[in-house]
């Protein structure tokens, strides 16, 4: 047992994460206000963050993590980024769905507060584990690595909002772009955690820059094509039925998230270009 880590700021933050996530899902479970896709997602987020954080703490305190054949630093950095994004989404989605019309709001309101605090705790962990300039660290703890997790997460939300039919070639191209960029980004994350990225017989840094250039170029087309064809297919909210998911709202959400992911890939490209061609040369 490694008791020296018990007083580290990172471990203290993780204990707060465990307490806050556990409190959030316990309050919601007792209030029974989670019987919908939004409530199920919120419960999954809190339980997922709780279970994985406990696992990380136990493995680090016992020292078992050192015998696991993965890049532990990359794994924990990627998880903290993913958890903060999931909790950010949940902290907005859950109260917007369950608080407006609730009659007994104490438990869901308290759960929302716990969720928001838990988000801030994971955001602090991301800041604590992020690689500092000039520091030798895992790729996923650098800004481009954290952006990769962000890009993959946004793509997952886009997939959840996409409609089931694509009668126009422009919409089919947009879905292809989302899929290609997500698959490659997820593959980069998996290979990095598995310590396999550096074993590939290519210049990884320049390959990543090439992929970012391609992703930015492809997303530029989708930023224009997706809203043009989607709102040509569904021009207004008249097709929506009260009480059901509105395809027009989904189209707006996909449009906004497409613009966000385009900007993230552009920032990723700028950081990667700076790290390879300026920081290394300096």
UniProtKB/TrEMBL annotation:
Family annotation (InterPro entries): Marvel, MYADM-like
Keywords assigned: Membrane, Repeat, Transmembrane, Transmembrane helix
Chief subcellular location: membrane
Highest rank taxon of the organism: Eukaryota
Chain ranges passing through the membrane: 12-31, 43-65, 77-97, 109-128, 149-169, 175-197, 209-231, 251-271
One GO cellular component, as annotated: membrane
Cellular localization per UniProt: Membrane
The family this protein is said to belong to: Belongs to the MAL family.
Protein name, as recorded: MARVEL domain-containing protein
Species: Eleutherodactylus coqui
Lineage of producing organism: Eukaryota, Metazoa, Chordata, Craniata, Vertebrata
């Amino acid at each position: 047992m490694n008791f020296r880590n018990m007083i580290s700021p990172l471990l203290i933050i993780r204990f707060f994460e465990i307490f806050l996530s556990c409190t959030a899902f316990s309050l919601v479970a007792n209030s029974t206000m989670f019987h919908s896709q939004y409530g199920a997602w919120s419960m999954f987020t809190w339980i997922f963050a709780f279970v994985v954080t406990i696992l990380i703490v136990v493995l680090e305190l016992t020292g078992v993590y050192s015998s696991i054949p993965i890049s532990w630093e990359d794994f924990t950095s990627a998880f903290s980024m993913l958890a903060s994004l999931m909790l950010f989404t949940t902290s907005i989605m859950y109260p917007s769905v369950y608080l407006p019309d609730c009659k007994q709001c104490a438990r869901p309101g308290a759960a929302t507060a716990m969720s928001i605090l838990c988000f801030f705790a994971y955001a602090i962990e991301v800041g604590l584990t992020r690689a500092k300039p000039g520091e030798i660290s895992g790729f996923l703890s650098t800004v481009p690595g954290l952006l990769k997790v962000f890009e993959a997460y946004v793509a997952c939300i886009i997939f959840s909002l996409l409609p089931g039919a694509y009668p126009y070639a422009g919409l089919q191209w947009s879905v292809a772009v989302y899929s290609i960029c997500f698959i490659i980004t997820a593959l980069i994350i998996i290979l990095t955690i598995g310590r396999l990225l550096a074993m590939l017989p290519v210049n990884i840094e320049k390959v990543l820059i090439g992929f970012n250039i391609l992703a930015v170029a492809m997303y530029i087309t989708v930023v224009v094509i997706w809203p043009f064809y989607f709102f040509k297919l569904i021009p207004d909210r008249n097709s929506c039925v009260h009480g059901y998911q509105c395809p027009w709202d989904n189209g707006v959400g996909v449009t906004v998230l497409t613009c966000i992911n385009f900007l993230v890939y552009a920032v990723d490209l700028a950081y990667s270009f700076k790290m390879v061609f300026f920081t290394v040369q300096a």
